[in-house]
Amino acid sequence: MASTLKHRHAGCGSVTAEFSLILVAFLMLVCGILEVARIIYLFNTLQVVTLRAATQAAQRNFRDAADMDAVRRHAVFRDTPGVLPLGAPVSDSHVRIEYLALAGSAGAMMTVIAPSALPSCPVSNKLNCMKDPYGPSCIRLVQARICDPAYADSCHGVPYQGLFSFIRIPLTLPMATAIVPAEALGVRPGDPACP
């Protein structure tokens, strides 16, 4: 009887050790699946974020900073400044909105209009485009991208930040881009020309 009890205790110890090894492997597998699912979520959601930002920016006054901040917040599904849900580190500050002109022969090339070269107001843009639709200060397209805000003069990808600190994934999130035609850009019927 004592030897049976001794074997039973020895069996319990090995079962506990085997269970803990299997549990660790199972939890690592679950964490890995969650990370891969989140990466897929981010790749898809970032494209939606840029499309939302570009579509709204095409209808809003590009000279109104508060309006443009609201567009960026709305693009990341927020009413206040902050991080994209389940999308850290991407926040509204990562959404870069740029205005494009069609230059070259019959608008063959898209060029980013520098902020200093933007028209003084949406009505001026409308007049510029009526005079010369392929001019360098005629906003024809709106582009939204996901860029690292640490680089103001160029667009760099955002490093992936994992859910679990013990899983390191050396990944840069895609620089998702959406380009839409410029619409009203905030012009309302009867708006006067700006100074």
Number of strands: 4
**Gyration radius from CA atoms, angstroms:** 26 Å
What can be said about the biggest beta sheet?
Answer: 4 strands, antiparallel
Tell me the series of helices and strands, N- to C-terminal.
Answer: HHEEHEE
Can you list the strand order of the major beta sheet? 2-1-3-4
Secondary-structure-derived class = alpha+beta
What is the CA-CA span between the terminal residues? 102 Å
Q: Name the overall outline.
A: elongated
Fraction of helical residues: 25-40%
Show unreliable segments. Answer: none
Mean pLDDT score = 88
Number of helices: 3
Strand content: 5-15%
Report what the structure shows.
The structure is a single chain. The protein has 195 residues and is an alpha+beta fold. The protein has three helices and four strands; from the N terminus they run ααββαββ. It is elongated, with a radius of gyration of 26 Å.
Summarize the structure.
By secondary structure, the protein is of the alpha+beta class.
Mind sketching the topology for me?
Blueprint: H1 2-57, H2 65-75, E1 95-103, E2 109-112, H3 122-131, E3 141-146, E4 177-181
Antiparallel strand pairs: 1-2, 1-3, 3-4
Helix pairs in contact: 1-2
